[in-house]
Structures are given as C-alpha cells and as structure tokens.
Amino acid sequence: MEVYLLHYLLLQSGGQSGVWTVSVIILSIGTWVGRVGPRPADGELALLTSPRERLETVRQVLSEVPLIDGHNDLPWNIRNFLHNQLAEFDFDRDLRQVAPWSKSAWSQTDLVRLRQGMVGGQFWAAYVPCESQYLNAVQLTLEQVDLIKRLIEKYSQHMQFAASSREILEAHGRGRIASLIGVEGGHSLGSSLAVLRTLYQLGVRYLTLTHTCNTPWAKSSSVEDDDEDGGGLTTFGEMVVKEMNRLGMLIDLSHTARATMRDALRISKAPLIFSHSSAFAICNSSRNVPDDILKQLADNGGLVMVTFYNYFVKCGPQASVSDVAEHIYYIRNLIGVDHIGVGGDFDGINKTPRGLEDVSKYPELFAELLRSGKWNVLDLKKVAGLNLLRVLKQVERVRDDLRTAGITPLEDLPDSPDTIGNCALDINSVQRVTEV
Ligand SMILES: [Zn+2]
Q1: CA–CA dist 82, 89 (Å, integer)
Q2: Residue 29 placed within a domain
Q3: Which residues pair with 320 in a beta bridge?
Q4: 18: confidence class by pLDDT, cuts 50, 70, 90
Q5: Among the options 345, 364, 368, 418, which is catalytic?
Q6: Residue among 172, 211, 327, 339 flagged as catalytic
Q7: Catalytic residue list contains 358
Q8: In three state form, how does the secondary structure of 13-52 look?
C-alpha cells in the first residue's frame, strides 16, 4: 500500500505541520527504497507531487494496459534509406548511433527506445506516395506489408504480429510489442474492393481513406479547395466504407477532407478513428479535426489519436510536450476522455515537441497529464490503449453481426478508374484467342 494511500489521506486531512512531517518522512522512506508504493486505484485522482512519482505511476499503468500508438512511418524510412533490405537494418541498436539514421531528422524509432517508451502496440504504416497512384501503388503497398511482416519476424523477441483486439492483449501479456499494419492512403487500393479484401487477409487493420491526393472516390484535405463543394465520397467510396465495415477494418480519417469525414461518419456502422490528427481549434491545420467533426466522432463512438508533429500541435516549428497535452485537454473537455488516443507519427515527421523527441518519451506525455491533477489512473489507461481496444472490439462486433446477417462481399464496379488508365491493361477489352 500504502505509502501512497497514507500520504493521500494525510493530505486530505490537511493542514498541521506534524502531519506534513510524517508525510514527508514516509515519502522519503519510499523514495529511499526505490519506490513509493502502489499507484492510486483506477478511479482515484492522482495527486502525485513529484515527477518521479508521476513517472512511476505511468510505468505501472503502461505495464497493465498496452500503450497503442496509431501511426509510425518507420517502414517508409526503411524503403527510403535501405530499399527494404532488412539484412542491413539493426532495429535493436540505438539508431542515434547508426548512419544514415543518426543523420536524419526523420528517424525517431528503434527497439531500444520503443522499450524505454513502454510502447505496447504499434500500427506500422504501409505508406506509399501518391505519385504511385494509377501506376504501381498496389504493388508498392504489398511490398510495404511484406516488409513490416519480415521486420516483425526478424525481431520476434520484441515484436508480435497482431490483427485483433485479442491478439494485441496476447502480445502485451508476453512482453512483445503488438505490431499491427495500417495502409495510409486509399490510392493503395487501385480502386479495387478485391485489393481491399486481400489487404485485410494479409492482416491490414486500418485504411486511411486518403493521403495527400484525392482518390477517384474520396477527397483529401490537402487538395480541398471548397469545403462545402459536394460530397467527399463517391458511390464507390461509400462501398469502400461498407466493405471495410463488413471485413472488420478500421476506417481512418486522418488526411481526409472534411466532406469525406462527414460522409464516412454518416455511412459507417462501426466507430471511426483518426490515427494521427489533433484539434483544429488549437491549431487550424487541415490535418487536424474541427469541433463539429469531433462531436460527431464521439456520437459514433470513435477515437482521435492525438499527433505530435510541431506544425499540427502549434502550427509552427516549436512545440513542447505540454502543448500536446493541451490538445488532449481540449478534446477531453469537448467530447470526453473515451475518444482520445495517441498517434505520434514518429519517423514520419522531422520536427518533434520538446520532451517528446522520440518513441522513448511517451511516459513523459502521460506524466504531463497527471501533473494537471485532474487525471485519474483509469483516464490514463483509456488514452493509452483501452479506448483503441474498445473501438477495435466494436469494429469486430459489427463485422460479426454483418456476417450473421448474411451480408456478402460487395462486387467491384466493372469500370474501375484505375484499370482504364494508360498504364494498365484494360482487362475488359481482352479477347480470348484460339487456344492450343
Ligand atoms: Zn500521415
């Protein structure tokens, strides 16, 4: 117990200097033996006074509940730096000491620091650039999925592939980082529901509907010129959302245009996520989520995983861990703690907040939340991972319900825009030749 609880009670009883002395002595003993006793119970306000106590509590929390981050772009850096040659990649070394990582402003991730940061689950982004749309986007995406799986295999002492809420908890229970795959950008589908289904079969568990380009069926925030200009999703885009519901794949709205967000929120039967976005009211980047959408997201049961890029946190090159906490406080005040997670976007950003420089620093963010004196342990657990687990479970439940209801796969449209471009065989025009 007890040291903490006693201290808490003494503080509550307030006042007399004798009491304070007792309290200080007890705390000193706690510190002397290297710990200050168990953390406060789940619903208890965490009135922890020192940074050390706060970090101690956070570490306890993150050992009980996996900290699940929504977005990490390491796989794209492995493509960039090493052409996906994993033999040349030492993920278990401190990459701050290893070129070319040591020289890059875009590198913030390795196993040493993931462990320090107590990361329990990570969505690894299978991202390929928009420039590959209508070209080889599907192939490049498959190569990124393959890369992530090979990475997990190579470091199976530390990482474990996960494709469900149950598997995340299993991996965490074994002390491995639950490793999930998210595809960032609808252009990776080649406008094909068959590709979507195949990606699901390969273990992909979220699709970000767009990256920085429009797809033929969804609008991106990066090319949005008139917010109210028509719908965000075409009929095919709505089919993508429905098929994702049927499969049990998370729908990610980071990077999408507001019209796309609204359409997806209207169509989806399952909760949606923003895997790496923050609050628009604090920094008015189109990558952040405006209040009206946040409110709809709460009605939908979904989740915004607050992101750390300085330009989305403070709309400028400088930010700090407390600025990230401000986004979390704001969203909590608006829609409640049940709809918040974290999506650092490490390895996809080149400006990180002071105090949140790399994947080793997550505990600092949670300690910062505790510092406000308004957060209890259950709140921390929700933001760390319980909210994401709840959303994923709900997505799995919708999938099961649709299966029970006998909903069958949606058929592709015969004239997919990706198969009639100059760089694709128009399969519908192929005539059967005489067979030998
Ligand atoms: Zn992104």
Answers
A1: 8
A2: no
A3: 354
A4: very low
A5: 345
A6: 211
A7: no
A8: HCCCHHHHHHHHHHHHHHHHCCCCCCCCCCCCECCCCCHH
**Residue 73: active-site member:** yes
Instruction: For residue 65, give its domain range.
Output: 51-409
Select which of 71, 172, 187, 339 is catalytic. 71
Output the CA 217–ligand 1 centroid distance in Å: 19
Tell me the chain's radius of gyration from C-alpha atoms.
Answer: 23
Structure tokens at 92: 């278990």
Q: Which of 7, 172, 187, 255 is catalytic?
A: 255
> Is residue 83 flagged as an active site residue?
no
E strand or H helix at 400: helix 387-404
Q: Please confirm, yes or no, whether 255 is among the known catalytic residues.
A: yes
Q: Is 299 a catalytic residue?
A: no
CATH, residue 266? 3.20.20.140
Number of structural domains, the chain?
Answer: 1
pTM over the 0.85 mark: yes
CA distances in angstroms from 32 to 18, 22, 35, 37, 367, listed in the order given: 21, 15, 7, 11, 21
CB 243 within 8 A of CB 189: no
pLDDT score at 412 = 79
The residues facing 123 across adjacent strands are 180
The answer to whether residue 149 sits within a structural domain is yes
Whether 432 maps to a domain, the answer reads no
At 241-282, the pLDDT tens digits run 999 999 999 999 999 999 999 999 999 999 999 999 999 999
| pLDDT tens per residue across span 342-391 | 999 999 999 999 999 999 999 999 999 999 999 999 999 999 999 999 99
Q: 127 C-alpha vs ligand 1 centroid, how far in Å?
A: 8
187 CA distance to ligand 1 middle (Å): 14
What is the CA(287)–ligand 1 centre distance, in A? 9
Going by DSSP bridges, is the β-strand pair 119-127/177-184 parallel, antiparallel, or unpaired? Answer: parallel
Active site residue 158: no
**From the CA of 312, how far away is ligand 1's center (Å)?**
11
Secondary structure class of 289 (helix, strand, coil)? strand
184 CA distance to ligand 1 centroid (A)? 7
Q: For the CA atoms of 190, 195, 196, 199, what is the dihedral angle to 10 degrees? A: -120
Is position 68 within any domain? yes
Alpha carbons 285 and 283: distance in angstroms, whole number: 6
User: Is residue 172 annotated as part of the catalytic site, yes or no?
Assistant: no
Measure the CA–CA gap between 360 and 44, rounded to whole angstroms. 27
For 125-171, the pLDDT digits (tens) are: 999 999 999 999 999 999 999 999 999 999 999 999 999 999 999 99
